[in-house]
Amino acid sequence: MISTAVVVAAGGLWVALLFAVAVYGERRAERFRRVWPVIYTLSLAVYCTSWTFYGTVTQAARWQTWLPPTFIGTILIFCFGTGFLKRLAALAAAENSATLADLITSRFGKSPALA
């Protein structure tokens, strides 16, 4: 059995590595300008990482659901919704929004009804 200290140390090292990679990328942004679309595309794979896998397995085990429907929406949007995604990305860039919440706020204001 792995001790708690080893798990905490491994987690801390992983976070430190991710932070170091982020700092390196930020400081040398011009160097990565050509490959930025590839980096962004690969980062979308986060959707299908282990946390999602284990989450869907837990969902299937708990509620006896079939796994593929969990991913059908994502598959369909990336196969058939590229035009929508391009327009959404252009709108987000025009509004200087980093998240969907920022985009909604910038477009519709800080309305209490929206919250």
Describe the structure.
By secondary structure, the protein is mainly α. Among the domains are: 1-33; 81-115. 71% of the residues lie in helices and 0% in strands. It has helices at 4-27, 36-43, 50-63, 68-80, 82-95, 100-108. The longest helix has 24 residues, at 4-27. The chain is extended and about 50 Å long.
In short:
By secondary structure, this protein is mainly alpha-helical. 71% of the residues lie in helices and 0% in strands. The chain is extended, with a radius of gyration of 19 Å.
Write the layout of secondary structure elements.
Layout: H1 4-27, H2 36-43, H3 50-63, H4 68-80, H5 82-95, H6 100-108
Helix pairs in contact: 4-5
Features:
115 residues; mainly alpha; 6 helices
Helical proportion, percent range: over 70%
- Residues in β-strands, percent: under 5%
Uncertain runs with pLDDT below 50, 5 residues or more? Answer: none
The description of the largest β-sheet is: none
Order of helices and strands: HHHHHH
Q: Rounded to an integer, what's the Rg over CA atoms? A: 19 Å
Note the quaternary state here.
single chain
The separation of the N and C termini measures: 46 Å
Q: How would the global form be characterised?
A: extended
Number of helices: 6
Class based on secondary structure composition and strand pairing:
mainly alpha
Mean pLDDT: 82
E-strand count: 0
